[in-house]
Amino acid sequence: TVHPREERFAANIDYFDRLCRVVKKMRSMTVGAIGARTTAFKTVRIDELTLQRHGITMETLDMSAADARLLADSLVQTSLWGIDSHGIARLPHYLERISRGSIKARPAVSVKETGPATAQLHADQGHGIVIGHRAAALAADLARRSGVGVVGVSDSSHCGAMALYTRPAARAGLIAIAFTHADAMAAPHGGQLRMS
Q1: Extended strands (E) in the chain
Q2: What would the pLDDT profile of 45-72 be if each residue is shown by its tens digit?
Q3: Is 158 noted as a catalytic residue in this protein?
């Protein structure tokens, strides 16, 4: 913990402010502290009033630490692949939806195995990336048991880049196909005009 009048505190705020510029329009967004506090050695405490003077609002969101880490790692990995439209730039949108409740931070996910190689995962409005990883892991388990695994997902949200789910399967020696729907405002693959 650093006293707000110490020079180190001002340096920490300056560093944090420069980090925030990585995400477009960070100054006008609400930053969500996702998940439970980690150990004291990993915790950084910054006075909320000081942040507000810099145009930053803090809000606590109740994702589990594991789900928060999975989401953060997935967004960073997607940006590292060069898919910025589905990478870390999506974080402000996701945080805003979690804070509004249109994405549940702790959904009651349920799975119904519908056959030896099939299952339906009901996401209860959970975060699509977290749900996508669960569905991919379930499909991999089904495939190991039955030779093929097919999982449908319902009541989820934006699931990010499909490579998040197919690449781990390939590393595990499996063949994976992942797909999702798109709104009518998106042009189909190879197209130039949107469908609506």
Answers
A1: 30-34, 57-61, 110-115, 118-122, 150-154
A2: 556 666 666 666 655 678 888 898 899 8
A3: yes
